Amino acid sequence: MNNEMKDKYQLSPILLYFLLFVSIIDLGILSYQKTILHFAGYNAWISVFITGIGVHVIVWMIYRILSSFKNEAMDVIDVNRICFGLIIGKIFDAMIIFYFFYGAFLMFRGYLSIVQVWLFPGMPIWPVSLVLIILIYYTVTGGIRTINGLSFWGMLAVIACVLPLLFMLTKYLHPLNLKPLLNHSVTEIMLSSKSMVFQFLGVESLLMIYPFIQSPAKSQKWAHFAVLTSTALYVLLLAITFMFYSENELKLLVWPTLHMYMILHVQFFQRLEHVAVSILCITIIANLSLSLWMASRAARRSFSIKQHRSILVFLFAFLLGAVFIKDYDNLMAFIDPYSATGFYLLFGYIPILFVMMQFKKNRNKP
Amino acid sequence: MDNPKTAVNTLTQMIHALQKSSDFKTNTIALPYQEIFISYFITLIDETKLQESLILILQRRSSESPIRSTEELLPLIPIHELEITDCLEVIHQKLFKGYVVIRLNEDDQKCALVHIPNQIGFRNSNDTENEFSVVGPKVGFIEDLDTNIHLLRLQINVPSLIVKEMTIGSMSHTRVAILYIDGITNEEIVSRIEKRLKEIDFDIVFDSSQLDQIIADNSNTPFPLFMSTERRDRVVYSLISGQVAFISDGSPYFITGPSTLFDFFISPEDYYLPWILGSFFRLIRIFGVIFSLFASALYVGVMTFHYEVVPHSLLGPLIYSRINVPFTPLLEVLFLEITIEFLREAGARLPTKIGQTLGIVGGIIIGQAAVEAALTSNILIIIVSLSALASFATPIYKMANTIRFLRFPIIVLASIWGGLGIFIGVCFLLVHITRLKSLGFPYTVPIYPFRAAGFKDSFLRLPYQINHSRPSYLRPKLLQRYKPKDVKKHKQEWDEN
């Protein structure tokens, strides 16, 4: 296992926070209110809490898995090799590569459709895709440090997008909307939690970036902190949304966060949703680049494909796919399998790895 | 051109070859017991000094007994830059630096070299001309290396200020001095800069800024990766914060590094004003740069695509001002931006007095006429001239140029994809500056990699009792600069001691 990173490629623990925060919070922040409403109605904020706690457990498990062997920092490729052997391990590797790539692609196309809906309805897709692809290529070839730097700005962008909603909407809110506090069954709330897992996808990137962290043990608190802050952000924004819209109204909207923006205005600016969609570009690019970096890194580690080549293949597939998918409704069909896979990856695959690694560790001990 | 060095093997041949130039003189001084031969470039040496400190002394000494060997000259001549050598290459180089060659016999290989340079051609005034400050010293550097180092030594009175000299340039043999403070500066920086400078193969070095481009980590960037300054206080400040400075002979600009993006928004004046004002002015500068980068692009984006983001009350005047303008916003903005670039470029090249007149002609008359001829809108003129003004709020001219250049791609992007285009441009910029390195150190410290302590002296200039350590990203050997005054923490009652 040739996993010893040179010191200059490594990230100090606090930087992990930005990476994780940005890979958790992405486009979902514009529309998640609607999806989790489906089962638990206005009790859904409890579901967000529950999912948050679940994800904390997953993060803890990931750390236990990857630090099983004290003297070497592993990533998921090594773990697959240890748990499943060479051939089955490679099949899992391939699935993980495809999973990261597919997630990045959905984000890419999803963002473009939001731009099409909110900013430029008649915009042809391929020119803007091309420019974004060049941008992503430039980011990914800068390595994990560049992606991390952009994630920092991406995090600021998310904050800049969400803070006005938290503070400027106060006079339009109806706190009584939140009542009754509990009128759904436990099953409904759990089902909502399950659909909320999709918004937390991104923590699994820890599986790949772990060996790049300087002192992994210290970084765990930052990983948990990233999950904590994103949970808090989701809950707060959800509460604001619930107080702003009535339940039936909210069901009709596709992007409630952006709709809330429409009412805001400052002295010389109104319709801030235009600004918000544009600013989110930074976050999306950071998020995408991280996923593609992980996919190409996994491809290199497992199949020894040069990162430059794999990234070009991925980006070319982006361009084709972006033109192939017609609109947002069309895209939704592609999202469901991803979100299901993501759920089983977090709450199936990772716990299995966790149990297997505990066994392996105990066998190695005596 | 043939290198004269390759054709000659003896000193006599070399002197013979040099005599092709009419300013090269070889004189024979006839003394009572012997003849002495001296050769020099008359344009490079000080003739009166030659008379006083060389010829007169030689005459006086040799009236008693003949001088037998070159070594006997050493105690005679009251100039300490004096050496005896028979190495042709050294002689050749020194001749061009204002040395005089003394031979006792015409075909001697061994000779004495005496340094008698003249100082004509250097300006006497060393006021800072391009980096002006209202408060604080106005001492700047001139085109002479020794004077510059002298100026620095006057302020840093410790033996640990190290000057390392080398020569660069196959034809100019320019002296380049690297300065740092021993025991503070991280040696890795010094060795890195030394290594890069030594690897340079170049013909003539005109200015330090050429060297700075050659040794830069990434030459395909509009951003300056090293600070270049003509101000003494700025160089001293970088030296004591653990950076390295270098300068080439003949250039009034010191290059200091490794630099970060935010160094370019620091003016020495910030340290001479109360910290509240200093911090305020820094923020103004950073705001100015952001404004200058995006103002015209925002105008293009809003006027082309996003009318709806402008409130009604403001939309009226906006539309009214460009109701007669026949061009698209992009063309309108480019027209004005390029006019300003013309003005700047012409103003910078013209003599000062004409430049001022031109500013009035350009700024007022062209602007006024352009609006009356309905080529541009009033509001755009305000935006463009404000952003031109703001771009020059950065204290370093190099950075101002970068900012001025970067607006154009952003304007074009804004004209294609509006707000999204602007932020695509921002993304490119952010990725680019994150990828940049100055001498291997990240360019965007303290934002990324994030260092909370770095904010004390980057965006803000906090008071001296807080701001007492060197920037940690430079990994200085001694972090603490000075012991701060104790801050009184206990709360006293008012009106009582």
From TrEMBL, chain A:
Domain of life (superkingdom): Bacteria
UniProt xrefs under InterPro entries: Spore_GerAB
Subcellular compartments: Membrane
Recorded topology in the membrane: Multi-pass membrane protein
Membrane-crossing residue ranges in chain numbering: 12-32, 44-63, 84-105, 117-138, 150-169, 189-213, 225-245, 275-296, 308-325, 337-357
Pfam families for this protein: Spore_permease (PF03845)
UniProt keyword annotations, A-Z: Germination, Membrane, Transmembrane, Transmembrane helix, Transport
Entry similarity comment: Belongs to the amino acid-polyamine-organocation (APC) superfamily. Spore germination protein (SGP) (TC 2.A.3.9) family.
Name recorded for this polypeptide: Spore germination protein (Amino acid permease)
Organism annotation: Paenibacillus endophyticus
TrEMBL record, chain B:
Keywords: Membrane, Transmembrane, Transmembrane helix
A GO biological-process term: spore germination
Chain ranges passing through the membrane: 283-307, 377-397, 409-433
Cellular component GO terms held in the UniProt record: membrane
Superkingdom to which the source organism belongs: Bacteria
Membership in a protein family: Belongs to the GerABKA family.
Protein name in the entry: Spore germination protein
